[in-house]
Amino acid sequence: MAIAKAERLMNLALCLLGTRRPLSKRELRGSIEAYLEAGSDDSFNRMFERDKDDLRELGLVIETVENLDAEVGYLARRDSNRLPPVALDAEEAAALGLAAKVWQQARLAGAASGALQKLRAAGMPEAGGTDTEGQSALEPRIPVHEAAFEPLMLACRDRRPVVFEYRKANAARPETRQVEPWTLECWRGHWYLAGWDRDRAAERVFRLSRITGRVRSKSSAFTADVPDVVTVRETVASWAGESATRSALIRLRRGAGYPLRSRATSVREAGEGWDELEIPYGHGLDAWLVEFGPDVVVLEPADLRADVVDRLRAVAKD
Length: 318
Prior knowledge:
- The protein is α+β, with helices and mostly antiparallel strands.
- Helix content is 39%, strand content 25%.
- A hairpin with an 8-residue loop joins strand 4 and strand 5.
């Protein structure tokens, strides 16, 4: 069925692009085999109107023209449906090449490679030569090891709610979450899903490495409005602990916690194999500190210390 419709749309597009004058419905029906096989005029009219709307949704500009006999005709002028030539300089071509290499480990690898081939066929310069020689040696990578990445990527694209089991940092057992997925973001080597948690009726962010089992898609529609991309990215940054509003003072065992040390604004020796660090304090820092276990002691503020202690006690009970 899908192949038959795609063939019918292609034939209609070719007819509309190949004509120099508007073609009436009658002429189009006589030129396309699928329309000839339509059982009745009503069936043909419904099929044609759906096909015309589908082609317009795909980006084809179809003009409607009425002739002197008040008969309506259709055509798609080539000059209205031709993209401007692709013009990229060497640096822009190198940037696109690097971006395509990022997705070599994910489902997008095929699409990225195909897009590059089309651009090169249109005249995009190859990455290399004297100006881009240093750039072409770069091999960027965004690791995608989580099994949940691909189904969540497709759910975000298709706007389909999902259900999955999620284990919070302070829990030993996962909980069922029903989420309307908005977008996926990679932050400091970890993937996060931002979306609307239906059970909690609130915006939430989930770390993909804490999703257990299979991600299941639902057929129901979204119930919450999807915010703009900037807002979602700021939310991911906030829940990942990147939007710091205060500072925290922690004690860190010497030789441990290098990610924490890289973010510290100050470090001083505390004696007996410990250092004291001042680090930015934002939402999600408590969950991150718990991951370092006995190598971290929170000194202040008191609310952060209490949150970390509560998380550790919850894990110890389980």
